[in-house]
Design brief:
The chain has 277 residues and is of the alpha+beta class. The chain has 8 helices and 14 strands. The longest helix is centred in the middle third of the chain and has 22 residues, at 100-121.
Length: 277
């Protein structure tokens, strides 16, 4: 048990981002941080640590806009998380789990306001916007917030894979309504046309928010849309749970990105994998 009254877990993570085979720059950003009420530690691309004395946040953001605006947008998004989320640690430490939804809603709202302000202030950042999928690990619980078409997947230790987030696209809506198969949705020409994002001309920000209780053996995957352009859900599951013996030495995130680039590579490609031990 830790001082906050929940069993201690060890988290093991790996993150990789690649600009792909076509794009000249990388507008994806991924983030890993360990934090408490006093300080924030930026995490490396690969590592592990326990939940005994701190919370963790992992996030993937895909920026969009002219010139370098997309890359700038995803960086602003990551920077805002660094500043705002540690303030909530005291609530978590006191067991105030009912405040999680409010904390995440405010976080997304503040990022949206920052991107909108910067986008309106400079010609080179006009129209900048970003997607965001983030996981906040407290003892025993993973709380998530999401907007756009980056994704969070949950792979419980008992088997299978579930997409926790909903793609904020019309194509994503058609897929959820059963009007498209997974293959048809992935190949649809309008698959990247967003209905929601942070910044740009989007007037209202209503993120998807949820929570999952985790246990040892569970895996979570955060990724950009570029990763799933090359991989179906069952391929994600196989690469994470049953890797080829020749690829076991690679980090889980590197296995996913390599496989996606081999099959597609048309977009920036990012994977961030978090396992519970």
């Amino acid at each position: 048990m830790n001082p906050r009254g929940a069993p201690v877990s060890r988290l093991r993570w790996s993150g990789v981002t690649d600009r792909g085979r076509v794009r000249q720059n990388n507008e994806d950003t991924f983030l890993g941080q360990q934090f408490n009420s006093q300080e924030v530690h930026h995490l490396g691309k690969v590592g592990d640590a326990t939940t005994e004395l701190a919370d963790f946040v992992f996030a993937v953001s895909d920026g969009m806009g002219g010139a370098m605006a997309g890359e700038f947008a995803s960086r602003i998004t990551a920077e805002k998380i660094t500043r705002l989320l540690p303030r909530s640690f005291k609530q978590s430490a006191l067991g105030m789990e009912t405040g999680v939804d409010d904390v995440l809603t405010e976080l997304f709202d503040q990022i949206h306001k920052a991107l909108t302000f910067v986008g309106a202030s400079y010609e080179e950042t006009h129209g900048m916007q970003a997607t965001l999928s983030m996981c906040w690990f407290t003892p025993g619980w993973m709380h998530f917030g999401h907007i756009g078409d980056t994704r969070i997947y949950y792979l419980p230790r008992t088997g299978g894979i579930k997409q926790l987030t909903e793609d904020d696209t019309y194509v994503g809506w058609m897929f959820r309504q059963g009007q498209l198969t997974e293959r048809q949705a992935r190949e649809h020409p309008q698959r990247s046309a967003l209905q929601k994002a942070l910044g740009a001309g989007n007037q209202f920000v209503t993120p998807q928010i949820g929570s999952v209780g985790y246990e040892p053996g569970d895996l979570f995957l955060l990724c950009s849309d570029g990763l799933v352009e090359g991989l179906f859900n069952d391929q994600l599951l196989d690469l994470l749970r049953n890797p080829d013996p020749a690829e076991v030495a690679l980090s889980p995130a590197q296995r996913l990105v390599n496989a996606s680039l081999e099959r597609s590579g048309r977009d920036n490609t990012t994977a961030l994998v978090v396992g519970v031990e």
